[in-house]
Amino acid sequence: MTRTSAHPPLRSRPSAAVRSLLAVLALALPLSLLGGCDDGRPEPLVFDSASSGPRAAPGDPVTVYPKGPRARFTSTGEIGDGTSVGVATVTGRKSGFTGQVWVWAPPQYDDPRYAHSGFPVLMALPGGHGYPVNYWMGTDLGLQSDISRWSREGKSLPFIVVMPVLNPDARQYYDGSDIPGQPKMGSWIAEDVPDFVRANFRTFASRDGWAVMGSSSGGFVGLKTVLQHPDRFKAVIASGPDLVPDSPLWRGHEAERLANDPGRLADALARRPDVPGNELYLAFQLGSRETGIGPGVRRFVRTHMKGPLKSRLLVVQDGGHDAHSYLRGLEDSSIEWISEQLQPPVPDRA
Prior knowledge:
The protein is built from seven helices and 13 strands. The chain is of the alpha/beta class. A nine-stranded mixed beta sheet has the order 4-5-6-8-7-10-11-12-13, with helices on both faces. Helix 3 runs parallel beside helix 5. The longest helix has 17 residues, at 323-339. The radius of gyration is 20 Å and the shape is globular. The N and C termini lie far apart (56 Å).
């Protein structure tokens, strides 16, 4: 299978993006600036972490307070609601891989009413190689401004949106997996990036606060990751996804390749009892003009989505294999359907 990008080529990031600080990502906790800079460069904010504080009332979801290590974020673009997208360089403890992660926190994150609540996390994965950038971080697509608007309209939860690089280089696809002898991109996506988010933001302890979305090759990685780790993630939006692990790097490692096959993973989960706690929510999206991959995605849904695997397929009218089409599908109904399955932030009780 030939992997294709679900988005037109990215423009180069403007160098002026580094001039501002990421004030939006304040953790609604005391913060401090580092000492002044002699060379005149802006000093990034350092966020204090809470080791204690008001806890949820009985029956409320458990908030996980950030305990560090604290990251230094640099602003890469401002959103119309006054928030910004920030980027940090992360070295994963599980994978050993070092890569960039872009993060956006919604305006509600700094609302005093939610000062002690966790927030749901949506990891957004790109198509193509997803290196050296993740195209969802760009303001041209407007994912963050859309989620901000949809949350005001009641269509979406106010997600923390996390956008890691997908591959370690632009030469190969690594299928978001720990291919023997290669960078451990499965551990990077499923473990290191979530650990980084927990270290810096208020999140929920339960998988009810964690979801993934992705397009094309990122749709494959998102789908596989949720099926592989149903204890960590509850939902996925897979748009125009690839459906089999087909990186040439799997050669000589067939058993490991099959262990990362979404169809096999889904069949194993479908045999579990269809009871609360076992359910996963899988939203698939296709453009109506995706005649090449459309039949395979429809067959995958018919064949594998059974038992506790709750799925839906949205066909975006006059849509193609591109991120703009998939955003139309999100607005139409997919983001609302996924949001209904996940944990919203909980306002403080008087």
